[in-house]
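Good morning N.,

You mentioned wanting to compare the apo and holo forms, so I went ahead and generated the holo version with flavin mononucleotide. This is what I fed in:
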Amino acid sequence: MRFAADRPMRLAPATAGDYRELARRRVPRQLFDYVDGGAYEEATMRANVSDLERVLLRQVVMRDVSVREQAVEVLGQKLALPIVLAPIGLAGMLARRAEVQAARAAERMGVPFVESTVSICPIEEVAEAVATPPWFQLYVMRDRSYAEDLLDRAKAVGSPVLLLTIDLAVVGARHRDTRNAMVGEPGPRAKARRALDLLSHPGWLRHTAIGGKPLTFGNLEKAVPGARSPAAFKEWVDAQFDPSVTWDDIAWVRERWPGRLVVKGVLDPEDARRAADAGVDGLIVSNHGGRQLDSVPSTARALPAVADAVGDRVEVLADGGVRTGLDVVKMVALGARAVLVGRAWAWAVAARGEAGVQHMLEVMKADIDTALGLTGQNSIAGVDRSALYDDAAR
Ligand SMILES: Cc1cc2nc3c(=O)[nH]c(=O)nc-3n(C[C@H](O)[C@H](O)[C@H](O)COP(=O)(O)O)c2cc1C
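and this is what came out, ligand included:
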């Protein structure tokens, strides 16, 4: 017999954690683990969340907080809240045309959506579905003509900001993907297990896998033609990601990208200074959501020193472990102008599509509003380390 407590998610989802639970039920295990997991022992992934949890907000009272402004200017754009939907590769496998759904929700909430290089929906399809073009994320590839082609496509749809992801010179091992035979060519047993996994999620199968357009890599059709499998994708990744890239290569991108240029994946103050020297407009303090090198610092831990190292030379953004609006305020207090959320939107779109992502953003917006009010702040743009108790993160 099952008790009501076994099925708590009959209640309406209220948090990113609730969306995670709904996503866990809806999508095949191999996909859930792909999103949920991190590299090696997942220590950094856990620390992203737990270090942020340990950061304490400084509550102050009896200030006039009748005005609480969340709008911020980021990379030349006015955002309604200090949030950006992070690039999530393969998101379109989680729900039908998930990138389009998320971009629509983001637009409605006045925040940018970042289209990953390895999205299912091509950038043109996403751009067509919204009035404000998505930002674009690019990996540095060996085949520069292919990178150039992608830059041209992003330019053609009017993408204003390019995120150049620089923490994938080599690829970290994700053990959950190995266990789920998402890596390498699966044997017959693994194939059967994976098929069973897919078949035991008929809602997802009907709606996403069979019901929509084919699940191919929309931006990589020429590079990975018709590829449906994560194994084919991994092969392409290993062949294409370029470990010889240095800061000098930023000039190559600069020459071909007229918009704002942001590097994603900086943890070290020295690297941050180099990024500023290389002439980028912004940097994102990120450890790829704990999916690359394990045992590196959480982003909450790394952020203050990076922000101090560059000052006003470049705009500093951050991501990793952000699950609530309070986390957003903490990241801003630690030195970020705006914050990217990754898994939180991936779970929401997997669970409830566009409405889920919009709701997740509405909840974060309400959280931020409360946090501003109870830390005595009139504007998120004015939040600094004085909003933290005892400068707790360091
Ligand atoms: C399933 C998944 C796929 C991702 N794909 C990409 C990607 O294609 N490009 C990229 O730059 N970062 C990618 N990331 C990293 C995110 O952009 C972001 O840095 C990270 O998710 C932030 O941590 P959070 O998930 O705890 O919010 C991915 C993350 C996840 C969870």
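Residues 34-35, 48, 86-89, 116, 118, 137, 165, 264, 286, 288-289, 291, 319-322, 340-343, 346 surround flavin mononucleotide (CB under 6 Å).

Happy to go through it together on a call whenever suits you.

Best,
F.
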